Amino acid sequence: MIRILRLILALLVLLAVTLLVQRWSPTTGAPDAASTARDALDRTFTTLPESLTGATLSVGLLLLGSWLFGRIFKTLQLPKLSGYLIFGMIIGPQVLGVVPKDQIIHLKLVESLAISLIALTAGGEIELSFLRKAMRLILSVSIIQIIAVLVGVTVVVYALAPSIGLADAPETRIIAAIIAGTIATAASPAVFIAVMNELRAEGNSIQAALSVMISKDLALIVLFTVVIAVANGMLGGQNAPSGEGMAAASAQVADSDESNEAEPALTEQTEPAEGEATKPSGVVGTLSVHLLGSVLAGAIFGLGFAWYMHVVRAHLAIFVVAGCMSIALVSELLHLEALIVALVAGLLMRNVWRERVGPFFHTMEDLSLPVYCVFFAVAGAKLDLNALASLWPAALALVGVRAAAIWVSTDIACRLVKQGPPIRTWLWTAFVPQAGVSVALISIVQTTFAGKPFADPLYSLVLAAIGIHELIGPLLLKFGLQRLSAGEDSPEDASDEPPNQHVPS
Amino acid sequence: MEIIFGILLLVALAYVATSATFLKLRRATVVGVLVSGGWLGVLAGLAIGPGGIGILSPELVINASPLLTVGLGWIGLMIGLQLRRDILKQLPSAMIRLSLIDALASIAIFGFAAALLLPYWFQHDSAIAMIAPVALLAAGAIGWTAETRSLRLADAQNSAETLTLRGAASLSTPVAVLVFSFGLAMVRGRDIESLTFSATAPVLRFVALILIAIVLGIISRFGLRRAQGNRSELLAIFLGVVAIITGAANELEMSPLLSAMLAGIVIANLAGKELRKFERFIIEAEHAVATLYWIVAGVLLDIRLGPLALVIAAAIILLRVVCKPTIVAMSRVSNSSEFSAKQLLHLTPIRQSPMAIMLGVALVIAIPSDLNHRLLAIVALTGITCDVIAVAARGLRKRPTAAEQPAAPTEEPAA
Amino acid sequence: MAETPETRPAEQPKQPGEDRVLLVVIASDPTAMDDLFTALLDIGITGATVVESKGMAAVLREEMPIFAGLVALLPSATGSRMLFSIATSEQAASVAEFIENEERSEARPIAVVLPVIRTVGLRR
To answer: Which domain holds residue A195?
Structure first.
């Protein structure tokens, strides 16, 4: 108890210091824009916008504050990740406003870094030998789950439509419901990896969960592209953005009053597939180029990283940061899927040059904590509390149906391939959390269908549901992962894996 | 495409910097001086900057200023962390005296010279506009490099003179940060027409920063204990503290170097055992961080100096060559008649402190004006010229007789 | 590090416990030493010489101080330690195994096992 009080005290002092500094800052009140000034040589120069110079303090507060908050949660036996999210929510623009909205935009860099880091970690966790062995389990869980969630959520959103202002023509309602169902199939690799790192969980069930998540993500990219293309065709896609136009669109989202904008990095990465695919005929071609390109880029990155580990093997921290940033930047540049690029790179490194790249993954683990602290605190700061406050009953229904669909479908799939507990009983908890990917997807929907009467209510509903998922997902996941790694000794997936080192927090 | 190029360049730099050949080359006189002064980094920056192939633009660098500010904080923290009571107590008084005399003399001489010459260069007759440039040129002139090895005065390597010179150089770094930061903080506003002067505001903000540093010091000690040596948690605490303290400095319009240095001093004197690992963790990155900022300096500096600015640079170089050895001689560091000791005391102080470039970068990041880009170029020019002069003088002033020449322990691979 | 080098001093038949080896452990992380000492005692090694040491990278860095030159001037605890001990090859194998299983990779010491031809003055 005293420990918690001390942590809270430290946190309050930190907040007080930040608020005092912000209050005392002589620059407060100046217009937040770059302006020009003249120097002693009588030459004009551009001064920095205030939000940019203020961003450093915000990053510090987000980092140290969420670290302290995470420790409080850890002491309470709760996932630290929830602590980061809730801290971000508290100091974010909607509650205390210590971190204003215009500064969150400047944190895009951290987000791109986090997404590459997470996907690289995910790739590094999966062994190809395991994939071969557990292919049936992975495929059956993925397929049955996608179908169950898609159907379940579509039905519930269709039924709830009048109560949330979605009372359009039945045709539009169905489309809106299907879009919601598609987005509901997304899971959150970020939340999963973060909780996994926190529990130091490893083993077959973790690999199984990750593999299912990845195959679901791949399916989702295809599914989402097709659904959007078809919807656009049916509704007359006058607002269909082009691949290049999407960056501007997402910037617009970021600047709009809807504070819960997409993670810009993800948006831009997901969008080209969708943007170019607005002509249904071109969907398959564009998509396969897009996916194959991502895989190829991932292979090149993996090869490059492995080469570095082989030849240079120094300044690893800087190299890992530069590597993750370059994955994000190159993907953005070439309109590839950063998630897949990093995933393939990680997978390749882990499975082909295992011995050599060990230190790379260790360094990544060292770096992950500060990145996660800021990444999830920012996610928390972006949570749309207004949507949650007004739509919580409908959102709760959506969350409930989705969770039930995931649970039942995972159980059925496990029974089909004769997979026993604990995977059968607890694997489903891995797929409940939702965060960045889903936010990015619904933002794309909102920009694509801007002006359609269903766009805004649907956006708010999905965001509210994501909010609930962000809050309860990690709790459920921690509970499930502890059971999964504690009880993992079923003969089905016995392999040459070392026993898991389960470290209770 | 430029990004991929930039990444490849970084990888290539890391590859070169860690290769055995380079490490060996670094031990040779000329390359050693070039590396320890940071000139290879600055040249690399120039090559990729707008003056070279143009991969990185100064605007891009300035837009990354939150990140660069945190990096400056890292440097400030490194400087502050070594100012521990137990270390300071062990320092000989000659070292402290030398450093003090040098600081006072340098501020007076170089500050005066800058104040005298800058008005000829400036288009505006504004005394307030001179404060920050004068502070930079004076603070940059304080001290000298702490690196004595690359001049290869073999028998002076472990002498008392070497230790005194190196210690005084290290001690003058925090003084330079202090002088620069106060100069910068006395002036508010960006536009030449709206600059205001206040002597008291920086003092008040300095006190506020000390208080913040103490609070953060206590929080980080608390955090360091909780982290129990876990690198990941150490990194989170460290980055958080640096970002907050530098962010606070930004908000209070003080230099992030100063605020982080204060935090470093507090942490060093507050935290006990937990600090060791933290300190190692930070200092291990010294060369990587320095190289990064040298490259940044290369990108940011504007070499279009013009004759008047060149005159200022020449004056500083001349003053360094004349005054620095005199200051050291007057401080009576040694009465050794040994040739190499004398040469060491003459040549090392001529070389500019690597901190000068960092101060220039800090100035450009704080106020990205054309003037400041050029001031950075002046600092770089004086630094590299003084290094070249020191190396050349070492080559010219050979020992009186060949018989006294001790056998060199190793052959120089290059130069 | 998995298998200790075979120690074959001449062609003499080996007596159990007589195949002496020199165990050299270099730990850059002082916290690793604590666990290592416990492990050594568990394994049955009760005597060793421990020396404070400094890595080459640190020496090269200190030669070229940039911001933190003061610390390099004073003799200070580097944290790095070297341990020498004469042990049997079985004991050395156990130590190597212990080090291999060190969970925190950054705290993992370096260990070298060398054959010993002769020892004098060893009181055991």
So the answer is: 106-493
